[in-house]
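WARN  no MSA supplied for this record, continuing single-sequence
INFO  ligand: 2-succinylbenzoate
INFO  echoing inputs
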Amino acid sequence: MAAEHIPGVAIDAFELRRVRIPLVTPFRTSFGTETHRDALLVQAIPKGGASGWGECVADVQPLYSPEYVDGAQQVIERYLIPRVFAANTPKASAIAGLLARVQGHPMAKGALEAAVLDAELRAANVSFGAYLGAARARVDCGVSVGIQTSPELLIDVVAGYLESGYKRIKLKIEPGSDVAFVRAIREHFGSELLLSADANASYSIDNPDHINALTALNPFKLLMLEQPLTADDIPAHARLATMIESPICLDESIVTARSAAYAISIGACKIVNIKPGRVGGYLEAVKVHDVCAANGVPVWCGGMLETGIGRAANVALGAMPNFSLPGDTSASSRYFAQDMTEPFVLEAGTLAVPTGPGIGVDPLPESLREFTTSVQLIRR
Ligand code: OSB
Ligand code: MG
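INFO  complex generated
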């Protein structure tokens, strides 16, 4: 379903809603520990018909990327929504162009575009999956496991996820919490386990201890090593790729389809993690998918601890043909005791692509009541 065939919808107002939901277990990465998901939900309210929803994946602190949720909300209110309103009834496919003059802020832009796109698709009675060209009804799921205090504890945590049916385990690592943890998991669960590691940019190519540690991962046959080095140094990843055996996957470095094409062309990555928020929205995410497909580079859908709103759209994206590796799109229960939407439930290691109009899910009234911390209505 090409974008040109979906009519635009006149948006009367946007609601910016903050929700704060406790995580079932703290999530520790090389850049910090999260105990809650503090999300910004963007609701595009048309004159008539169903609202569209988008989830902004910016975190509370600017540690994964320069964006942070308070800043995202402010930039949406001050600089993004006025441009959308000034254009009258822009289609979702025109929004990235309207916002291009505003530098950066991909997560803020992506959330606004997602809300408008969802409103359009609901009005046209087309599901996100159908719109994106989903190639399958269910997507394979992996799980991203936070840094634990000991390898023994990590084995217990991973065992629990494998019992639930997850098809791939991703271990968060950082210098000092790497080789012993990966070795413990590989030795305990065997060579068949699809196992990857995500460093969140915490290693330096100039630090011999760091390079020794990454080289020491070679025997453990990782499916991939995700974003070992700083986001803005794609060439360093190409150099590292000649020094280690683990295939490199880029996350933070890939901010546009252009950067994906560049990274692939210089041999900086063999796999790409696609996060719609990081690249400025689902439409740019499709372009990243297409560039990778054209170069024979497999992709998978990353995650940012989304609520059911963002998850629904991510699962639809993950059903596109070149999403050939299990994603970080885990079940609701991996994150929350109660989600914003009906929970996404893992079955045989997969989640179902929603089939209803738009993202196919709605926030539950009781979750809106329980988790909302503020609401801001911005009228045309
Ligand atoms: O690097 O992929 C990452 C979560 C927050 C920020 C960055 C990352 C992650 C994850 C978790 O790995 C993915 C998820 O389960 O949503
Ligand atoms: Mg990552």
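Residues 106-124 form the longest helix (19 residues).
INFO  checksum written, moving to next record
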